[in-house]
Design goal:
single chain; 288 residues; 10 helices; Arc Repressor Mutant, subunit A; 7 strands; Jelly Rolls; 43% helix
Length: 288
Amino acid sequence: MSDWNGEAIIANTICKGPEVAHQSNLGKYRVSRWRQFVGSYSLPALPAPMFVVHLSGKRDVRFWDRDGWSEATSFPGAATIVPADTQTRWLVDGELDVLTFSLNEPVPSGQRNAFGKMRFAYSDPLGSALAEQILSEFYNDERDEHSAYLEHLMSMLSMHVSSGRSSAGKAAYPTSGISSSRIHTVINAINDDPAKRHSLCDLADLVDLTESHLSRTFAQAMGVSLHAYILKARLDRAKRLLCRTDISMQRIAQMSGFSGASQFARAFRQHGGESPTSYRSRVISAAH
């Protein structure tokens, strides 16, 4: 699968390649955005399963289900798994706008049941939020500086999709007051300025939710608390500054949202197992 044959099949079918695409550094997975006005089309069998997130464009997309077009329809934010070795037919009649996630390695035997059949237009808040965040990085003018962050997002999506744990049925928590777009808004606010004081109150106001609702649903969707996510965003920024600049630890601490060099060093060692100084020396030495 090293030639990403699944994506070549899609490109040949809709007569257009992906608008943007990114392959992970180690070549394990690839994410692509497809935008094209299409009617109905038949997609030949893919060599491996593919995870798809409906981004925008035409609502009410359908697939051929045995003897007719499906009663269920896809919509922006919905996720679909297209199984391997199965020809599929699709009815769009408008703009197709989706993100695809392709694995370049066999699905582990213990996870194959999750990918053995079509799972169409199901609710997957985490998968959708990760896909949207990855997409925003595609169009980031400072993308080179965020390459490590993009790799991390793709790795998270890979683990999520491969686990087969996305909920295709009733959500395990209330969803009436939150959507993947709100999670995406919170993630963007944090990553755009990790050093800012992101209080729970301010973030809840940003997406028009109560503090308790945001705290609970963010943790459910992302698998970590808001506090933990903010801390990781600050440490990720600090790591980039350590690798690419020679500015002082005190200045890095301030630029990353820590009150001082001592707090920064303590948090860095606690989560990374080494001091910021040791990390900087090790990474610089490895680069040479």
